[in-house]
Write a structure and sequence with these properties.
By secondary structure, the protein is of the alpha/beta class. It has one domain: Rossmann fold. A four-stranded parallel sheet has the order 2-1-3-4, with helices on both faces. Helix 5 runs antiparallel to helix 7. The longest helix has 18 residues. The mean pLDDT is about 90.
């Protein structure tokens, strides 16, 4: 299995969960792009793209393929893009459940951030409400194979369309000793 892996998919598809599991199974470091991107008070960190460049300069990495400015940097070094192309009802349910859980439990996310109550952000722009963002961008990766084929023709795209396919694919991968 190649050592530079990006996991693509819309919000709620399970990018971070799969990336973390891939890293553990293959013995490859996983870095969460959200942790690099979000500074205190949900402000973008000025060093974000420099951090992404440092990440993808490594010999091996597993990360999420997201953020418009970071995607070309990740793709330029990736060997595999795993595309979680799950049905909208699956991803939307996951976004709602995850967001409610984080909000109710006041889970601390990246750099001290917590999900704001949904009622406070519902009528704001989709960029300020993850549920609205997920709905607005649910078809974002429709052209992913063409984009990867055009920009990085040597990168393998693995398209997984259900949680069952994800589990089967993951189970077929080797477990690296010590991982």
């Amino acid at each position: 299995m190649p050592g530079r892996i990006a996991v693509a998919g819309v919000s709620g598809s399970g990018k971070t969960t799969l990336a973390r599991r891939l890293g553990a199974r293959l013995g490859i470091p996983h870095t969460e792009l959200d942790a690099l991107h979000h500074g205190p008070a949900w402000t973008p960190r000025p060093a974000f793209l420099d951090d992404v460049r440092a990440l993808v300069a490594q010999d091996a990495f597993v990360t999420e393929w997201q953020y418009t400015a970071a995607r070309p940097l990740v793709l330029a070094r990736a060997e595999v893009v795993v595309w979680l192309d799950l049905p909208t009802h699956v991803t939307m349910r996951q976004v709602v459940v995850r967001t409610l859980r984080r909000s109710v439990r006041r889970e601390v996310l990246w750099n001290g951030n917590v999900e704001p109550p949904l009622w406070r952000t519902w009528y704001r722009a989709p960029e300020e409400n993850i549920v609205r963002w997920a709905w607005t961008t649910r078809h974002k990766y429709r052209d992913l194979p063409a984009e990867v084929g055009r920009d990085a023709p040597d990168v393998l795209v693995v398209r997984l369309r259900s949680r069952r396919e994800v589990e089967r694919w993951l189970a077929a991968l080797p477990v690296v000793d010590g991982a």
